[in-house]
Design goal:
Distance between the termini: 64 Å
Number of helices: 9
Strand content: under 5%
Strand order of the largest sheet: 1-2
Mean pLDDT: 83
Low-confidence stretches: 16-30, 85-98
CATH architecture of the largest domain: Orthogonal Bundle
Helix content: 55-70%
Oligomer: single chain
Radius of gyration: 22 Å
Number of strands: 2
Length: 203
């Protein structure tokens, strides 16, 4: 091969590098946050991974799909990269985040490690919808065993989810009217999701 031909091929390869970089970044980024987070039928139809994950968690843990969706909707709006805001030094310089919450479920580091240890899912990621729904099911199962909360009771499950099961048993939420209002909203969404899934035959 002549020097001129090699140079032309090199220039062509270099010219394709930006295109390849865009393709690689797009493949790593995954799908964006769903646009219609309040429509269960649309969510599960447009995102087959959500459908598989929620159904698997329902079979494994007995937690209705509507409850799973409502908790994840409240915690992250189905944004797998969700993180709490950062604190700022002198109102300007970004500092540490307000908590270690992360991913679909906004699970804290310690709780996520406990989930990984108890389930054996040591490589589970908080940005995975399959791990997220399994985590919700696992937590609801613990709340059911320790506090007697029904797995279909989205309101009380969310209170235990937010306050911790010990906090729920101590009724730490009773002085937090804003939290009770959020839990009521989660319950409303869970019921609406269930109605939607029945209407489109996906319950």
């Amino acid at each position: 091969m002549t020097h001129l031909k090699r140079s032309a091929l090199t220039r062509r390869a270099l010219g394709m590098m930006p295109i390849l970089a865009v393709i690689l970044l797009a493949s790593c980024a995954g799908r964006p946050t769903p646009a219609q987070v309040d429509n269960a039928c649309w969510l599960l139809n447009d995102h087959p991974a959500y459908r598989r994950a929620t159904r698997h968690a329902e079979r494994k843990w007995g937690v209705p799909i509507g409850v799973q969706l409502a908790i994840i909707r409240q915690e992250s709006s189905f944004n797998r990269h969700a993180r709490p805001p950062r604190r700022h030094i002198l109102w300007v310089i970004p500092w540490r985040r307000v908590s270690s919450a992360r991913g679909y479920t906004q699970a804290l580091d310690g709780t996520w490690k406990q989930y990984q240890s108890e389930t054996g899912h040591h490589w589970a990621s908080r940005s995975s919808i399959h791990a997220a729904t399994d985590f919700v099911g696992w937590y609801a199962n613990r709340a059911n065993r320790r506090a007697g909360i029904q797995k279909s009771d989205a309101r009380d499950l969310y209170l235990a989810y937010y306050e911790g099961i010990g906090g729920y048993l101590a009724r730490s939420y009773s002085s937090k009217a804003w939290l009770v209002a959020v839990a009521d909203k989660v319950a409303y969404r869970a019921n609406r999701y269930d109605r939607q899934l029945r209407s489109c035959g996906m319950d």
